[in-house]
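We treat protein structure as text, and this decision shapes the records that our systems exchange. The remainder of this section carries one protein's record, kept here as part of the documentation:
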Amino acid sequence: MTRKITAFALILALVTALAPGASAVWVTDPGSLRGADFTDDPALAAGLDRVFRGEIDLYSDLTCSVPAPARIGCRDVPLGRYLFVRSPGGTVYSGTSCYIYANAVYATLFGDVPYHGEPLGWTRSYRAMEGGDSISCERFLASSIRCGALLRTTPNPDGSYNSERGHSVIILSYDKRSVTYLEGNADGRGLIRVTSLDWSAANRVLFSSRGYRLSFVVQPADRPTEEPVAAGPGLLGYLRPIRTYSGQFKDVPSGAWYAGNVGTMFSLGLMSGRDETRFAPGGNVTAAEAVTIAARFLSAYYDDGHVFSPGGSWYAPYYEYLSLWGIDTSFAAPGAAITRGQFAALMARVLPEDARSESCPGVTFPDVGGEFRACVELLARCGIVGGSGGAFRPDACLTRSETAAIVTRMADLSLRLGA
């Protein structure tokens, strides 16, 4: 099973950018946009087509008999004007500004109304994610956030939703670079716009500049999140064997402390041998090789379907992939041997939040300080790295056998020290 991050392609002829280099996109002719620009799900695309055509079920009265003047792309609604939306079960909900727009768009897409975020108001939805001061591609992937999900923010410290203050948007698409969302009453006069921002800008606009927290992200439960495929007792995320190791590396004795790690690394597709029969366990690992392993781990963990297409140097696609995640790869020249401290710093940034189960709390190394200390101690507490005689040796060159041990412990909880 592969989770696909929805791609989007907004045709420039249909939109007007705010300014050169600006990220926000104002929809000038929403009726010309297509739902298929944002999702490859036919039913969802058809729902978005209805939204873009202005066929959104908003009303001006409690009986829901008078269509609201605020259709997509218009500025005809007085500030603070209450509008109404009817749920599939017949219950009428009211609200102003972005709040009612997001409810109505969600209802148009999925036939459900999230209301105030209480399960009592839902018929087919569930909270996919909640809490925190920011969003990221990593968090969205971990929660399987899909096109059409409704995101709400709030100024309340506990994250409880406040319909008078807060913001509500519909997530249209996202990738490692950016997130695209539909927001209602964007200018306080009824305008609905499509906004595409890189993650840093989105967090600034939706959270830090307003002092908001994430209340929740809600999406339909009739398309439940698929469970990760686990092929081992402790494999995390979507990591799974893609090939078989049958002891083909003749320089890896079956009794060696790292033999199982090498087999697991090979089977997961994270690391190969120097050739078909030689692994070179005592050989050094270059920065380019370390970046390649880190990129493969991250992509496999989230099962994002990324294809590392050849281009330029053999390692360029892997550097580019980590840069999309905002992970620094400038710690050493690609061909330089990487140190144990440098690799720990790289993999600590790659290690997902839900893979940080601490099996060795309180571990410290007196020979580690400065830039490496926090990263090494994080991996040590999680049982991913160990030392020798109480020392970690951060400046020593990293060997291929040590690399196999570190990365397989990241991938499989059952292999961690102290487990």
User: Anything to note?
Assistant: The chain has two domains: 12-220, 259-415. The chain has ten helices and ten strands. Residues 287-302 form the longest helix (16 residues). The two ends are 29 Å apart (CA to CA).
